[in-house]
Amino acid sequence: MGVAPPNETARVASQDSVVITHEDVDRAHDRVRVSAARARKGAFSRVRLLWLLIGPGVLVMLGENDGPSMLSYAATGARFGIGFFIPFVVLTFCMAVVVQEMTVRLGSATHRGHAELIFDRFGPFWGWFSMIDLGIGNFLTLITEFIAIRAGLGFFGVPAWVAVLSALGLLYLALLTHRYWTWERITLAVAAFNLAFIPVALLTHPNWHSVSHALLSWKPAPPLSKDTLIIVLADIGATVTPWMLFFQQSATVDKGLTRQDIRFGRIDTVLGAALATIAALATILATTPLFGQPMGAENFQAAEFAQALRPLIGRVGASLFALGIVEAGMVASVTISTSSAYAFGEVAGRPHSLNLPMTEGRVFYSVLFMCAAAAGAIVLIPGLPLVYVVLLVNVVAVLAMPPALVFLYMLVNDREIMGDLVSPTWANILATTVVVLLTGAGVLFGISVIRPSILALLGGG
Amino acid sequence: MTREKHSIDPSEKALVLSSLEQDQLAGLKQHIPRRQLKGPEVVVLWSLRIYLLFMMAVVIYQVLSTSR
Question: What residues have CB less than 8 Å from A282, skipping those under 6 apart?
Fold first, then answer.
């Protein structure tokens, strides 16, 4: 399926049946700025073009450095210190780049969201399976984002209900812009606080020799045990999850990226992955001084990592850590609820764009806000055993990823919709490797739960 | 005559038509034809579906056994 150039559009659009919406007008204004920057020569124009075109990739990667992810990294540092997991986290972000790059190509080539393509190409039977996976995963993850916000602000003495209402208020304010570009820039500005974990790590004075040794040797390696496997799965789930596929493809479409912009879409994705890797590694390094202390994911609800770090890095460092957790939950709650709303709109055939005015996008904005509000409300119910959600949400994400990746793989190799943008062989080999690794990790986790003795035979405890 | 929602300015209409590709216009998007899945593709999709259901049961078992 080819994509018509603008002059072709003009011909088609002159027909009676064309509807022009505010969504189109806003997107056209964005495209005019991109075209103007592209037409100019010089380094400054290149930088401006990059500035105009980055967004979905950085947002999806920093968005995935969310509450449960930062918890996983914090638990990794506290439980295993500097070693195997340092290069392992770098590897997981490389996997994320391989996967997310495909969504850039799909969105730019087809101008359609991921859910829409799955429904159109494979039919509602498989489409609903995919949507159920996404819906359950997104809602569970959203709950953990509000737990993170509550925990982070709780460090400063903010009551839980104030924390949740503040987060919902901020999310609502960003939506009031009714403009993708403005929403994206506001969310990017908030996402920049993900890098707050870097000064926290520096305050712990990491042993850089150990870090470089671990990066090169993958040692010391942890024992193969159920605890290790949960951390392995949680760290993988902290970088590759189904909502990321749906979000980046839909955001690429909403931003208006075309085939010409794919190179910048790739740069956007790699840049986002690099920033997210640095923040993730910083979190592991920040909690490494807690190595040997009985800290785990279950210590998350009361921001106990920040409290445990306070004697080591002082009030400022601990506050930065807590603020980083708040940011992680805030940005992810925005991006994940947006991915749910995009998918719902695509499947229901309702307008779905952050460029929509409220009158045209009432359903889209309602779904987006209600997803977040429902998750926030659940967090406020006293006595719910939310710790299990926090512990397992990333594991669930990893388990749901292989089916999602197979749909992505089939779509990105579909010559009828991709034309000459189908995946090259090397990209398919990498994507297949990712599917095999994720499935293998899931199977090992299953063995560790059902038959731990088999895991012991494999060399674990 | 082009139909518009909520009075789009004519100059902006021209801007839209000259800057967006056909498939980018919200009102012009059409469904992409469905493709027939091949046998091996159906096998892979069902295998992964069963894998996911089984693993979810494992996760629930894990949660229940931890909470006990």
Answer: A195, A197, A198, A200, A201
